[in-house]
């Protein structure tokens, strides 16, 4: 008797995963079509330098997507790759500096701190301006830690939540740089594995 519900659950899970995959492919295709339209428009206007810039930006973005996807942090990679597809008041960019390595031991910390800071920025910005957040992963730190840089440019309406983040105590993480103003912010975090504590 228990096999039937189990098979039904498997089928439902398979259907849900298939629907999610189709949705992701559709969003990705939409992004690529937008970029191709930019190239086509600039070709029509004979702005060849801009065409080469757009192509170079696409190559760099694809390289960072590839590096992020190969860090063995699938939940975080999914969160970053799909962030701009949802409704937010910040636009996310990211880059991975250093060699691709296994960051699976850090995934929970990375996901927690990223979600928290993204939420703080999203709720603290002026909704009528362009707001950009660039997250840089530095994977080649000499002590085998992971360094994260959160570089914000835009307009913040309140610094309270960011200052509260700075004042909070986080296990396995230290804030090594914290410069926050109403128009730009640079936060540097050093994450250590729990067993190193």
TrEMBL record:
<protein>
    <submittedName>
        <fullName>Spo0B C-terminal domain-containing protein</fullName>
        <ecNumber>2.7.-.-</ecNumber>
    </submittedName>
</protein>
<keyword id="KW-0597">Phosphoprotein</keyword>
<dbReference type="Pfam" id="PF14682">
    <property type="entry name" value="SPOB_ab"/>
</dbReference>
<keyword id="KW-0418">Kinase</keyword>
<dbReference type="InterPro" id="IPR037100">
    <property type="entry name" value="Spo0B_C_sf"/>
</dbReference>
<dbReference type="InterPro" id="IPR016122">
    <property type="entry name" value="SpoOB_C"/>
</dbReference>
<dbReference type="InterPro" id="IPR039506">
    <property type="entry name" value="SPOB_a"/>
</dbReference>
<dbReference type="GO" id="GO:0000155">
    <property type="term" value="F:phosphorelay sensor kinase activity"/>
</dbReference>
<feature type="domain" description="Sporulation initiation phosphotransferase B C-terminal">
    <location>
        <begin position="73"/>
        <end position="187"/>
    </location>
</feature>
<dbReference type="InterPro" id="IPR016120">
    <property type="entry name" value="Sig_transdc_His_kin_SpoOB"/>
</dbReference>
<keyword id="KW-0808">Transferase</keyword>
<dbReference type="Pfam" id="PF14689">
    <property type="entry name" value="SPOB_a"/>
</dbReference>
